[in-house]
Specification:
The complex is a heterotrimer.
Chain A: H1 7-34, H2 39-42, H3 57-65, H4 68-99, H5 105-115, H6 124-134, H7 140-165, H8 168-176, H9 181-210, H10 214-217, H11 226-231, H12 241-261, H13 263-269
Helix pairs in contact in A: 1-12, 3-12, 4-7, 4-9, 5-7, 7-9, 8-9, 9-13
Chain B: H1 4-35, E1 38-39, E2 49-50, H2 54-61, H3 63-95, H4 101-109, H5 116-127, H6 134-141, H7 149-152, H8 154-179, H9 183-191, H10 196-223, H11 228-233, H12 245-255, H13 259-289
Antiparallel strand pairs in B: 1-2
Helix pairs in contact in B: 1-13, 2-13, 3-8, 3-10, 3-12, 5-8, 8-10, 9-10, 10-13, 12-13
Chain C: H1 2-20, E1 24-31, H2 34-41, H3 43-49, E2 53-60, H4 62-74, E3 82-86, H5 89-95, H6 116-121, E4 123-124, E5 127-128, E6 131-143, H7 144-149, H8 160-170, E7 178-181, H9 191-201, H10 218-234, H11 244-252, E8 256-262, H12 265-269, E9 281-285, E10 298-304, H13 312-322, H14 325-335, H15 346-350, H16 352-355, H17 360-369, H18 393-408, H19 414-432
Helix pairs in contact in C: 18-19
Classes of the chains: A mainly alpha, B mainly alpha, C alpha/beta.
Chain lengths: 276, 290, 436
């Protein structure tokens, strides 16, 4: 039975939802608008909304000052690499937790999550020393490793909650047919878990892309991603709102666009087992 | 029933993840533990010596420690309250039929994609700045005195910024949960004449309990170590008004280069985080099994 | 999945090879100040002279920069080949052997041309450990139009009493004009740089000869009370978050009557491209209280080479280029004399073209009047005008700065802030073993 809703009520809801949606989005919108203003227009009081002289100067200035493309590539490689590596390690772990639960499975899972609660600043110096000795400072590989480890608990947990929802009988049936463990995972489990995996991948790319502590502290020039790019704009040099806005827009645009295009996949799987 | 063979391979499959995380935890942790008993300042190499519990004594008696402990709790709880209540209200609204659902959802989800550094920079400079910020402009237009957010209410402002970032996450999870609610049950209640408020508290809220637990757990994990937002906006100040534990340890070990003291702080923070973790796990464990 | 992963790793390796293939790439860590940003736009000149050297920039905000480079040099991480460091770091690092000596710079560099006060601060046991990029003291910058409107005339060497009077007269909050802008953001290099220098002119000091902190002295109470009075009555809102850069933005947009800060700001506030008040800025020495020392500091941003680097020659070539007379001439030809990095070389101030720059004379006088060896009225055991050249100072200075910043934000009284500062400094000095 479909819900019958009066048009009047629908209109009111529409109005409210749009108002709130725009309010939440407003800081981003304002940043994007400001990035096309001159510095003087950026702080104008009363604020100018659309009727200003649109300019790309800020983007040119920012690009001249920092090598955006390299930071961007580093971000792509680091977030993509750590997600991939994380998936390779997490899928088997989550599979075995979901389908061959042992007495301690739950504890192991909870323990994994608790490692995420360690304050990173507390272990920065030890990690820095280790990375120095291993030659991993300012390398993409080093960051891929760190971000993989940081996000691994989340990946394992997300995958675990999806796998658990896959009925065990299907696996039993596959096993009866003589499928090996490996093909069981590849042919039976993976297709069923694709939505969940897609969502996990997306969430991890977002988390890795936005991680700003390790990426800033373990890199200098070569491996520095967009978080380091934005760090060089973090305090004003005279009038700087427009330049800051341009740099901010450049830093968040890729992930924002990716997120918007894939939001259906992201949302579908973003339940962490909250929905039965 | 799982066979012995499959159990073996299950162990094998889980072990890379477990071993890696164990290494990731134990190696730095043992180094941190070791450093915490040393007098070890990066700026004074060659002077390292064993000092016993001195670092702990100084860290735990530092007046900033209690301020930081309180701020950490206030920050986590504050953001949780805002995002859970805001998320429920928003989810209820977005669950209604209206025009342009897809676009509104895109607008609402957007803050989640913004890196913390950027959102802190934008909020601090373009909105909360008491001279050139948009809020100040608005206040002046209304004939009011601009409010100086980051000096007058530093922790509140940071809670606001962080809540803005996490509200989409909470909303999405709660919305998905809400959409899985059995419509017939709701309609039956409606026909029985149950008022909206009753339907909400007796049908919707219990249904959302699991989702709320998940939101609390995931967000707490991230909120305990909020750092970039503080570094960018207030540097933990004024005074220690917005210093949380993470930031306090950062000050000790990376601004003062007192690795010994910072490590002691790290160990304390790890212990506290684990207490929170155990507490949370209990809660979630109960709720997720049901 | 495995092949994808391998392909990715391969791509990483290729990318690594590609960047490593150029003959010498040096990584330069620098602070995001205007002069440093300008240099990044003038690199064509360097590449023309040194085609075999590639420079990678890591530009960071001051506090982050300091943390990153100190951590790297102390752990011998080797991520940077040239570091931008302050006068505070150089003697401490030099003493520990963390920096490469620059005594062998060529004749053409003319090391004797460096201002003695600056050079002395960068020298340990006769070894020059860093080359100054620009030097600065602090001075009063004020709006000549507002001063005139207030019916006052700024003397060349004002007293604090006059500053208070002028701040009151210039303030016009309805039009968002604040009589005085001062640093309030916590940090040993932010509000404490200003307050320590101000305290010197009030007869206060950080430590007595036994390294006992002196925040319980009357001189410190007077300093802090006057500072708070100035800022609360005539300062801009949100002052407890304002550092150098924030105040610069305020002054450039015409919101400040007076601003006491680094002399390098002079070229930014008089540059019509960035500043809305460029044609109405005057300069005066930092104020005093008739006790001898003025409230000005001495600082330089310098380029140093960490001892661990494999690329000493390339790094030296860069340092030499960036701090040479030629670089000054290059900036002058591209951007005008007012924008050259100031405060490092005598020859610059003897140059008639530079003498016509409005702030040149006042900058030199301010730099020459600061004495890091005798900064205070009474004798002290430390070196440094606005800092105390001991490794522990960064931590202590910032923690004390937090207290004073909280007092400025109105979260505690001046007495409370001073009391906290005294206690925490005692604690840290005891922990560090200065006080038994």
């Amino acid at each position: 039975m479909a819900r019958s809703v009066s048009t009047r009520r629908k209109l009111i809801t529409t109005l409210a939802a749009w108002a709130i949606g725009i309010a939440i989005f407003f800081p981003i919108l304002w940043t994007i608008l400001t990035s096309f203003k001159t510095e003087a227009a950026a702080i104008a009081d009363p604020p100018v909304w659309f009727n200003f002289h649109w300019t790309l100067d800020n983007y040119v200035t920012v690009q001249e000052r920092s090598n955006y493309f390299r930071h961007f590539m580093n971000s792509v490689i680091i977030s993509g690499g750590s997600t991939l590596l994380g998936l390779i390690i997490a899928v088997p772990a989550a599979w075995s937790m979901a389908f061959v639960p042992a007495k301690r499975t739950k504890d192991v899972l909870m323990w994994m999550l608790s490692t995420k609660m360690l304050p990173p600043v507390g272990v920065l110096v030890p990690i820095y020393l280790l990375f120095r000795d291993l030659g991993l400072l300012d390398t993409r590989i080093g960051l891929v490793i760190v971000l993989t480890l940081i996000n691994l608990p989340i990946i394992v947990w997300m995958l675990y909650t999806y796998f658990k929802e896959i009925p065990g009988e299907i696996l039993e049936a596959a096993r009866m047919d003589g499928a090996s463990l490996r093909s069981e995972i590849i042919h039976v489990l993976t297709p069923m878990a694709i939505p969940g995996m897609a969502s996990t991948v997306l969430l991890n790319i977002i988390l890795a892309w936005n991680e700003a502590f390790w990426t800033l502290n373990l890199t200098a020039a070569k491996a520095a991603p967009l978080t380091a790019f934005i760090a060089s704009y973090s305090s004003p040099e005279g009038l700087f709102y427009a330049k800051l806005s341009a740099a901010s827009t450049m830093a968040i645009a890729p992930i924002l666009i990716m997120g918007w295009f894939s939001q259906k996949q992201l949302v579908r799987g973003l339940t962490f087992g909250a929905v039965k | 029933m799982a066979t012995k063979h499959s159990r073996m391979s299950a162990r094998l499959m889980i072990s890379p993840a477990v071993l890696l995380l164990l290494g990731w935890m134990l190696i730095p942790l043992s180094m941190t533990l070791y450093f915490s008993f040393l007098r070890y300042n990066l700026l004074m190499p060659g002077m390292e010596e064993f000092t016993g519990l001195t670092n702990y004594r100084y860290f735990l008696t530092d007046p900033a420690f209690f301020a930081a402990l309180w701020n950490t709790i206030a920050l986590v709880v504050g953001v949780l309250v805002v995002t859970v209540i805001g998320g429920i209200l928003l989810a209820l609204l977005l669950d209604q039929p209206f025009f342009g659902q897809g676009i509104v959802r895109i607008l609402v989800i957007a803050p989640f994609f913004v890196m913390p550094t950027v959102s802190a920079l934008v909020w601090k400079n373009m909105f909360m700045n008491p001279v050139n910020g948009l809020f100040a402009h608005a206040a002046k237009a209304l004939g009011l005195q601009p409010f100086d957010f980051l000096s007058a209410a530093p922790l509140g402002s940071i809670i606001g910024i962080v809540s803005w970032q996490w509200l989409p996450f909470a909303t999405l999870i709660l919305l998905t949960a809400l959409q899985s609610l059995d419509q017939e049950q709701l309609e039956a209640a409606e026909m029985d004449g149950a008022p909206w408020i009753k339907r909400f508290f007796y049908i919707m809220l219990p249904h959302l309990a699991r989702a709320i637990t998940v939101v609390i757990l995931i967000q707490t994990i991230f909120l305990l170590s909020v750092f970039a937002e503080i570094l960018v906006t207030t540097n933990g100040g004024p005074g220690t008004a917005s210093t949380n534990l993470t930031y306090l340890i950062y000050m000790q070990s990376l601004l003062q280069f007192d690795v010994g003291g910072g490590s002691a702080g790290g160990v304390v923070a790890i212990i506290l985080a684990n207490i929170v973790a155990i507490f949370l796990m209990r809660m979630i464990g109960k709720n997720l099994d049901a | 999945m495995n092949t994808t992963f391998r392909a990715l790793m391969g791509a990483c390796a290729l990318a690594a090879l590609a960047t490593g293939a150029t003959s010498e790439t040096i990584t330069v860590a620098t602070v995001n100040n205007g002069d440093m940003i300008r240099m990044q736009g003038l690199m064509d000149d360097f590449y023309a002279k040194h085609p075999d050297i590639e420079v990678e920039w890591v530009t960071l905000e001051e506090n982050v920069l300091r943390q990153r480079v100190t951590q790297d040099v102390a752990t011998k991480g080797g991520q940077f080949d040239v570091m931008t460091i302050g006068t505070y770091e150089v003697p401490i690092w030099g003493e520990r052997g963390w920096l490469v000596s620059l005594n062998d710079l060529p004749e053409s560099y003319d090391v004797d041309d460096l201002l003695p006060a600056i050079r002395e601060g960068l020298t340990v046991d006769g070894e020059l450990y860093a080359a100054p990029f620009y030097g600065e003291s602090s001075m009063v910058m004020y709006r000549t139009d507002l001063m005139e409107k207030a019916g006052l005339e700024m003397p060349d060497a004002p007293t604090w009493t006059f500053i208070k009077e002028a701040a009151a007269a210039m303030t016009d909050k309805d039009n968002e004009v604040y009589g005085i802008c001062l640093r309030g953001k916590a940090g040993w290099g932010e509000n404490m740089a200003f307050l320590s220098a101000m305290a010197n002119s009030y007869g206060a000091k950080w430590f007595d000869m036994d390294w006992k902190p002196q925040f319980d002295s009357e001189a410190w109470a007077n300093t802090l009370n006057d500072y708070l009075e100035l800022m609360n009555n005539y300062g801009p809102p949100g002052a407890s978050g304002n550092g150098f850069n924030e105040n610069l933005a305020l002054f450039q947009t015409g919101k400040c009557g007076m601003w006491i800060d680094a002399t390098v700001a002079a070229s930014f506030v008089t540059n019509p491209n960035d500043s809305q008040v460029a044609d109405s800025v005057g300069f005066a020495q930092a104020p005093d209280n008739g006790l001898g020392p003025r409230g000005n500091w001495l600082w330089a941003w310098n380029l140093g080479i960490p001892a661990g680097t494999q690329k000493v020659d390339a790094a030296k070539a860069f340092v030499e280029w960036a701090t040479s007379k030629d670089y000054t001439a290059l900036v002058a030809s591209k951007e005008g004399w007012a924008n050259v990095p100031p405060g490092t070389r005598q020859s610059l101030y003897e140059n008639p073209e530079y003498q016509s720059v409005p702030f040149a004379k006042m900058t030199l006088e301010s730099i020459l009047s600061a004495d890091p060896k005798n900064p205070t009225v009474d004798e002290v055991p430390y070196v440094g005008v606005q800092f105390v050249a001991i490794p522990e100072f960064q931590g202590i200075g910032t923690a004390v700065g937090q207290q004073f910043s909280a007092a400025l934000a109105g979260q505690m009284s001046a007495e409370q802030a001073l009391d906290n500062a005294q206690k925490l400094t005692e604690r840290e000095m005891m922990k560090a073993g200065y006080i038994k």
